[in-house]
Amino acid sequence: MIKLERGERPKELTDEVCEELKKLYAEDRDKDVWNSTKIKKPLKEAMLDMSHGKCSYCECRLEIESKDATIDHFLPKSKNPDEVVSWENLFPSCLRCNRKKNNREEKIINPCENEPKDYLGIINANRFRFKAIDSDGIGENTIDVIGLNDIRRVMVPRMEEWESLKERLMEIEADLKEEGFKKKYKNRLRKIMENCLPDMSYSATKATNLLNDDTYNEIKNILLESEQWTADLKKLEEDIEHIALRLV
Fold first, then answer.
1. How high is the pLDDT of residue 63?
2. To pair with 224 at 20 to 30 A between CA atoms, which of 63, 125, 169, 188?
3. CA 31-35-40 angle, 5° bins
């Protein structure tokens, strides 16, 4: 999970439209008023822009591999009907996370209001498993409510994406040690680093693993020694550090 920045609410979601849709929902709780033709398309576009096209919670890529983008009500609509189309209460979510969260009312991380890395770390002995690091129970609630350590649906995909990057890192390290610095190796490293940025799937996990990976740091040292650790790579690393979680 990474910190998200909520943009301006879609212009179509006016106060008048909100009141109209809230009234419809009050009359019939089975109405998916958030999918009204008046707001559905712009609302979906604005939410996916906010979340980099990912689930706000597990960070899987939405709209591909049959992972449809659903609308999650951060405060459950069943208990908070006045928030049913409130822009600040809506998050794009994969169906799995939406169903897991359902009507649970435990206090969890709000990706737009809270900094996830204040609540979540990654276990050093299993670098695809989250662990709560706060003392208020919010991190633990989040892991439990969302199922962030679901092995098959979440941990395995995180592992597979990282292992693909790790294999490419090892190839770069071998080539650098055998042939010395060549621009193509730096470009290959840049592509791997870009794969750990916020707009990529499972970016918090990949960012954490990258910065704590011996192969990555050996490549970095080689580039530093050959004066090829340039400003663009330094900026990329800073962006990665911004979303990386702590190993615990």
1. 80
2. 125
3. 160
Cβ-Cβ contacts under 8 Å for 230 (sequence gap 6 or more): 186
pTM for the full predicted model: 0.93
Q: What is the pLDDT of residues 88-117, one digit of tens each?
A: 999 999 999 999 999 998 999 999 999 999
Site of tokens 């809270």 = 114
Contacts of 12 (CB under 8 A, 6+ apart): 38, 39, 42, 43
d(CA 30, CA 93): 20
Helix, strand or coil for residue 132?
A: strand
Chain CA centroid to CA 130, Å? 13
Q: Report residue 106 as tokens.
A: 């435990």
Most distant pair of Cα atoms in the chain: their distance:
71
